[in-house]
């Protein structure tokens, strides 16, 4: 398994990087457990961990590239597609078709990431200033 970092840009005058990353992450959770079947007592609303680059506050969603993601038969992609402004219409169409074809099954995470999205390896992310999850943290 290879860890991948997906830096999430802010949407100027709409969302900060953190707000945008949280929104995307919530929609990733909705692939697994759509809003229509969520319970107010659910403990989580996000599927992946996130990491913040201290120098500029850019947040990255962090996942294992081959992690299997369940696609609920009840998934609705409306919100997810609306918060991906840098993803082309062609990529959105392909992503929609892929998710529709895999409802009720599992897909590797890397197949859900549009090719135009920035993707960093863990080593690249650390080199670009994201915290090293493998370093010892001083108390």
Written account of the structure:
This protein is α+β, with helices and mostly antiparallel strands and 139 residues long. It has one domain (3-127). The protein is built from four helices and six strands; from the N terminus they run βαβββααββα. The protein has a four-stranded antiparallel sheet. A hairpin with a 6-residue loop joins strand 2 and strand 3 (59-64). The protein is globular and about 40 Å long. The protein starts with a strand and ends in a 12-residue tail after the last helix. The mean pLDDT is 92.
In short:
By secondary structure, this protein is an alpha+beta fold. 29% of the residues lie in helices and 17% in strands.
What's the structural blueprint in terms of helices and strands?
Layout: E1 3-8, H1 17-32, E2 50-52, E3 59-64, E4 68-70, H2 78-82, H3 89-101, E5 106-108, E6 120-121, H4 122-127
Antiparallel strand pairs: 1-3, 1-6, 2-3, 4-5
Distance between the termini: 30 Å
| Average residue-wise pLDDT | 92
Largest sheet: 4 strands, antiparallel
Q: Write out the strand line-up for the largest beta sheet, numbering strands in chain order.
A: 2-3-1-6
- The domain count comes to 1
Give the low-confidence spans.
none
Structural class: alpha+beta
Q: Which word captures the global form? A: globular
Give, in order, the helices and strands: EHEEEHHEEH
Q: What is the helix tally?
A: 4
- Strand proportion, as a percent range, falls in 15-25%
Helix content: 25-40%
State Rg.
Answer: 15 Å
Strand segment tally: 6
């Amino acid at each position: 398994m290879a860890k991948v970092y997906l830096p999430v840009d802010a949407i100027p005058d709409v969302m900060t990087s953190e707000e945008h990353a949280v929104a995307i992450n919530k929609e990733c959770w909705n692939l697994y457990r759509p809003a229509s079947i969520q319970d107010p007592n659910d403990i989580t609303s996000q599927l992946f961990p996130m990491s913040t680059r201290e120098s500029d506050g850019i947040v990255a969603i962090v996942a294992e590239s081959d992690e299997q993601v369940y696609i609920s038969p009840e998934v609705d992609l409306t919100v997810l597609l609306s918060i991906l402004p840098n993803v082309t219409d062609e990529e959105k169409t392909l992503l929609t078709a892929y998710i529709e074809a895999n409802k009720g099954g599992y897909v590797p995470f890397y197949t859900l990431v549009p090719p135009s999205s920035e993707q960093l390896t863990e080593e690249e992310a650390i080199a670009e200033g994201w915290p090293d999850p493998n370093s010892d943290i001083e108390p």
